[in-house]
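User: Okay, second chain of the day. Same drill as before: sequence in, structure tokens out.
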Amino acid sequence: MPTPLDSKDSFLLAKPRLWGIAYRMLGSIADAEDALQDTYVRWLEAEVSNIKNAEAWLMSVCTRRCIDMLKAAQRKRVDYIGTWLPEPVVEEDTYTSLNDVELAASLTTAFMLLLERLTPVERAVYLLHEVFDYSYADTAKVVKMTDIACRQVNSRLKKHLTVQNVRSQTSQLRSETLLKAFLHALNDNNPQALTDLLAEDVEFWSDGGGKVMAMKQIIRGRLNVVALLHNIWQNFWSNLKIKETIVNSQPGILLYENDKVVGTLCLKEDDAGNTAVIYVVRNPDKLSHIASTSPTPAIR
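Assistant: Same drill. Structure tokens below.
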């Protein structure tokens, strides 16, 4: 029978992968940590000597816990004030230094929002098979369905989800170049340069959760978004310090006020290399996990 240390080591080895499924399922770092804690308690109570594959057992328990938590969370989101965005994970966050391009692509805000269109069980099936490379047979054991049913669910989802394959991702260099040009256009107060960087049907999403100033609806269209960005940047963010970082595996920025993180921003590109969507998270509850230290270096 494994010693307590062996048991703990097995959990720690699986923890990054457990966090990966939990965050993608729940869109919340705090909820993901709660799911991991619940999974660890179950692990300590289990007869681990009878468990042949520790990671598979842990992933199964964690995923099922996330399904239950997600059902409750979806009821709460009905009453959410304004636009809901997933809690941002930044480069400095634990477990997010991903060298695997495929896993990194499944952390983007756009992909996380795509998952919001799925039921909890559908989300689990899609993530386990498409992101974590589980076979249909192993996926079926986790969600308590037949492998044929899992195949049918995933096949149906692929037909209806009109987005790029999760395994494709814009080059980091191109994304960084776009972000720098975007910031320079704002800092230089150059509306034409900014306009040239935006897609005609660009969207601006902002999540304040009803706790800070943010747009309660999605703003659409190049002219509307340019006017909004000019107003925000010059009148509300002019005194904020900015640090470039990685937000949900994409180049983005942290906004600081008095050395405290008060916002994140990241961009989604279209195939032409223009900005298709701008995501801004301002809800303080979704930023508390980010270290609030003085940005170095500060862009302004």
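Residues 1-5 have pLDDT under 50 and may be disordered.

User: Thanks, on to the next one.
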